[in-house]
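Reopening: structure tokens for the iron/sulfur cluster complex, inputs below.
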Amino acid sequence: MGDGFYLETMGCQMNVVDSEQIALLLGELGYTPRERPEDADLIVLNTCAIREKAERKVLGHLWQFKPLREANPRLLIAVGGCVAQQEGEKLLKEIPHLDIVFGTQNIHRLPELLRDAREKRQRRAETAFFDEAERLTRFPERCATGAVSRYLTIMQGCDNFCAYCVVPYVRGREVSRPAADVLAEARALVAQGTREVTLIGQNVNSYGRKSEGEPSFAELLTMVHDIKGLERLRFVTSHPRDISPELVACFATLPKLCRHIHLPLQSGADAVLRNMGRGYTAARYLERVEQLRAACPELRLTTDIIVGFPGETESDFLETLEMVKRVRFADAYLFRYSPRPGTKAVTLPGAVPPEVQQERFDRLLAVQDAISREIWASDVGRTLPVLVEGESRQGSGQLFGRSTWGRVINFSGDVALVGRVVPVRITASYHNSQLGEPV
Ligand code: 5AD
Ligand code: SF4
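Re-run output (same inputs, fresh job):
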């Protein structure tokens, strides 16, 4: 047996796609995947820097690997992704048993870095950013997995510089991939058996804006939608400021487009939104939600909210709480504000004490949990079309799939159903999933 690699992916969809590319590269170098770090000759962590907690997790992991290195001197350890980009050389200094640091735009250099580490015991950190023309040649190349549902990157980076966010610093400027390439990859995925494609980007609504001659996001969505054999289409993430009337209309006109949109609110208070640099007011956000619901009454929304942003007062927080009650999100990802080095928010006055952050978080969570529970419980007794993605556990006779709203539904059925859309009657609703029976 040749060398094995253990790859762990943290963070968002971008990292999931990057990890597929890393796995492909390592496969070409003769490495085969391993389930446990103990069994590997190469450990790769693909990391997330969005909040401090995510970053601390990386350091914790790296220290855990120290005894493995002592037991297996052949073992190489590499860190990629957003923490690698942010910290660079510093990681090599802090962690003596770390061999390689590769930034978000340096995945393609992994073979060379591995060779130098193996042959010359060279410890290197590569975190350069490249210009647009070069980056366009490096949109992730993907392995054929035959998975029913897959992500497809349409753009990388972000130009928004929201005051709290590290993404523009660790992912670089926004670059849109040519529509022809997006369509070619979508067709290739469908030909490999994929039935659902999720178009991903940090801010998909600004797709193509910087590139002349490229379609708008709504036009791109329509083109992908029309691919024969594709069953369902999704996209993340949308910036509320950039939702166009054309995109709203897509929810009425494109039958394969799932009835779900993730629309990060961040705060329901105008003063906070202004300090965050979000470019919309609470009223504007609500107006967009109303337009979306007018186009598609069955639409369910999910969101991200940050509590305890610098300067957030109790009355600001109450406005967020009000907004959550008004919109009735099906799900909300709630975060306590975490200062990120280099971002504008770290210079803002009015830090909210941790205990106040926690208390607001708990109150918001209680309200949102009740709303989520109600919305998902309202599916019980209904029969929903479910795209079957796979077996819940191998050989269990249990399948899992998703409704148009994206929630996981478990039910019993034959593996032959994987890849098909089948009617399932929902019998119970839990915290993160639903239970059903085939009809
Ligand atoms: N602190 C807390 N939450 C953050 N997010 C982004 N940056 C921070 C931060 N510094 C949240 C936002 C974003 C989601 C992916 O993570 O809500 O939408
Ligand atoms: Fe971060 Fe704002 Fe860009 Fe989203 S839009 S990645 S929150 S800077």
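The longest strand covers residues 383-391. The chain has a mean pLDDT of 95. Marking as resolved unless the reporter disagrees.
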